[in-house]
Every structure is written in structure tokens, then in C-alpha cells.
From TrEMBL:
It comes from the Bacteria. It comes from Variovorax guangxiensis. Belongs to the short-chain dehydrogenases/reductases (SDR) family. Keywords: NAD, Oxidoreductase. This is SDR family oxidoreductase. SUPFAM superfamilies: NAD(P)-binding Rossmann-fold domains. InterPro entries: NAD(P)-bd_dom_sf (IPR036291), SDR_DHRS6-like (IPR051122), SDR_fam (IPR002347). Signal peptide: none annotated.
Length: 261
């Protein structure tokens, strides 16, 4: 399927690794020019060099701290002419209400919740003036599968689902689509660290991470790949999904509904 994305300009946060990196590669394959944002300068530069060499598209790197308002402003300034914004920066630590400090709540939300809100607001006006644009929020299926042991993530992700649905319900009047993707457990470096941490608590050593993963009885017997999430993001951003707005697609192999079994 031709996704009709060639020549478009796409800005992606959290692009140096994981889902953000896979999303950058997927858009590049479709012929999109990119603006990539993250804190990891070397990671961004290495990815940019690879993408430019393999796909012949233009890549701009913006090494900023997206949890800070000034970093968000710098990223918005460097990517003012984009067609698509993909919010993908941020992760939330596990823990119950009494385990998580006020500092951790605020630091995590400054990056993922307020970061998404501020960047959507920063790009919306320019998109409105052109009468076109797409904002894709990569959120997380803890918004579908609330868990008190992951209360920070569940609460923040649910807020971002609300942002996506509320903004996307009205943005069509300005020619803009706002959509979201809720990934389930995805095979990234962050998940590897998480599994090793669980293994250490359970077995006294981090070396049983694969056993921990197996015990989770995931759909299809595995986590999603980062590329599977990226492909969903790219499709939703494309003109092929031109009548989709205010919608959040859960990509978790059905995990959010397995409690009913």
C-alpha cells in the first residue's frame, strides 16, 4: 500500500531509541524528511547518519531535554514547518501510590504528560494556519489496563488518552487529525531492564529475565516489536487514515482484554 507520505516532514520525540527510533526508520522508508528530538546526542546523530545513508532523506537532530519547557520550545522552533508531530518521549516508573514521591510524579509528567500537551499546543497553531497536520501521541496500554502497581503510568496515560480524544474530536474543523497509539509490552531496552529488575527481586539475580517474560503469558507468546508499533503510528499519520481523528488504537495483542478470560 502506498501511504502517500513521500516528501512530508515529520517531527519525532524520544527518537534516539525504542519505539521512537523504529518510528523514525519507518517514516524514512516512506520518503519523509525528519526532525528528531531526544537528549542522547550520539544516539540521534548515529541514527540520522544511518537514515540519510540508507534512505536519502533529510534528517535534523535536536538534542534537548524535553522535560523542560525551554527544551520543548527549542524543539518546536527547530521543527516549525512539519506536517506530522509524533509525541513519543517519556516513560513512567512502576510503583504504588505510597511508593512514588512527589518529585517522581512531577518529573515523569513534565516529560510525558505536559511534554505532549505543550508540544501539541506549540505545533497546533501552525498546522491550523495551513489547514492540515497530524499529531500522533504514543501513549501506553496501561490507560486501558489500569494497575495500582503502575499507578503513575496508568494515571498519566489515561490523561493523554483524554487529550487525544478531546482534541481530536474538534481538530477536524481546523483540518488537523489527532490520534493515539497505546502499545502493550514492547521489546525495547527499557523492557529488558524491567525484566531484569523483576528477575533480581524474584530470583536474586537478573539472569532470569527470559523466564520472567515467559511467565507473563503474553499474547502470541511474545512482546510486540518496536517496529510493529511504529508501523501503526505511520499508518495513522498517513493520508490513508485521513478520516481517523480522536481515536486511540491499542496495539497489545489483545492483552488489555485478557482479564475477562
Amino acid at each position: 500500500m502506498n501511504l502517500q507520505l513521500s516528501g512530508m516532514k515529520v517531527a519525532i520525540t524520544g527518537a534516539s531509541k525504542g519505539i521512537g527510533r523504529a518510528t523514525a526508520e519507518a517514516f524514512a522508508e516512506e520518503g519523509c524528511d525528519l526532525v528528531l528530538g531526544a537528549r542522547d546526542v550520539q544516539g540521534l546523530q548515529g541514527l540520522a547518519a544511518t537514515i540519510e545513508r540508507e534512505h536519502g532523506v533529510s534528517v535534523r537532530c535536536c538534542a534537548v531535554d524535553l522535560s523542560m519547557k525551554r527544551g520543548q520550545e527549542q524543539f518546536a522552533e527547530s521543527a516549525a514547518d512539519i506536517d506530522v508531530l509524533v509525541n513519543c518521549a517519556g516513560s513512567n516508573p512502576a510503583g504504588r501510590l505510597v511508593d512514588i514521591s512527589d518529585k517522581t510524579w512531577r518529573e515523569s509528567w513534565d516529560l510525558k504528560v505536559f511534554g505532549y500537551i505543550n508540544l501539541a499546543r506549540a505545533f497546533y497553531s501552525a498546522m491550523k494556519s495551513r489547514g492540515s497536520g497530524v499529531i500522533v501521541n504514543v501513549i501506553g496500554n496501561s490507560a486501558d489496563r489500569m494497575n495500582d502497581a503502575y499507578i503513575l503510568g496508568s494515571t498519566g496515560n489515561l490523561a493523554l488518552v483524554g487529550l487525544t480524544k478531546a482534541l481530536g474530536s474538534a481538530s477536524a474543523d481546523d483540518g488537523i487529525r489527532v490520534v493515539g497509539v497505546n502499545p502493550g509490552l514492547t521489546a525495547t531496552d527499557r523492557v529488558d531492564v524491567l525484566m531484569r529488575g523483576i528477575s533480581k527481586r524474584k530470583y536474586g539475580t537478573p539472569d532470569h529475565a527470559n523466564e520472567v517474560l515467559s511467565e507473563m503469558k503474553l499474547p502470541f507468546g511474545r512482546p510486540a516489536s518496536a517496529r510493529e508499533i511504529a508501523d501503526a503510528v505511520v499508518f495513522l499519520a498517513s493520508p490513508r487514515a485521513g478520516y481517523i481523528s480522536g481515536t486511540v488504537l491499542t496495539v497489545d495483542g489483545g492483552a488489555a482484554n485478557r482479564n475477562s478470560r
